[in-house]
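ok trying again, last paste got cut off:
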Amino acid sequence: MTGIAGEADDAPELPEAYYLPGPDGTFEPTVATESPWASDAQHGGPPTALLAHVLRTRQDADGMRIARITSEFLGSIPRVPLTAQASVVRDGRRIRLVEASLLADGKPVVLARAWQIATSGEGGIPAEGLVSAAAPPLPDVMPQKFFTGYRRWGYGESIEWRWVRGSYDSAGEAVVWARPRIPLVAGQPMHPLERILVVADSANGVSSALSPRDWLFIPPSITVTLHRYPSGDWVYLAAVSTLAPDGLGSTLGTVGDPAGPIGSVAQPLLVAPQR
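nice, full thing came through this time. structure:
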């Protein structure tokens, strides 16, 4: 069990990482991946980050960076050991399309495709083409609270949350700073891309339009588009969810770091009453 120095006083004891390396290249999910909807399922953030980890470590290309990744959740993601596969769909010197999948007992449970785009180095873009925006202020340490009346769940407690606007107790547009307290894979430092993806799939949760005690709002997919990777331990997420009367919804958000915005997140939503 572990934690990070300087974290909130009421932070729970945590496992070593979101995933423990297993035999034959498997990844064993810990309680830190636990979904709010079911204790035997995973939140979408860690698996999406794990797919990016697999693509970065197995299909990386010199001078290229993942600029967009879409993760497709093929149902509830079980908290069981996972195997990973990765391949190149479309190769190229300046743009490549790569894909990866996570399998449970030989069955695909999450798929991802990502575009890698070549960078031109510092100074490659003239100053007049660069747009900057201020980041919201990072609030002081605050008590860690989650959905009102909801059971404790591992993913939520694996992250320190500091709210600028909104909360887990309120509905509507939200802005929150988040810091994963543990690495993605045990024994390996968390890569900036992994950090942002662990957090990004929380966009629909932090900006929930309805109470999770009464309603499900589940994203079957997430797309994150980045023009750069974050720096430092903290990332912020500004999001809003919009619902239609017939049970569909969408969440749109901005992700960033202390230097400002770095990209966007988009999720379609299934919205239905809790059973």
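cool. The chain has four helices and 13 strands. The longest helix spans residues 45-58.
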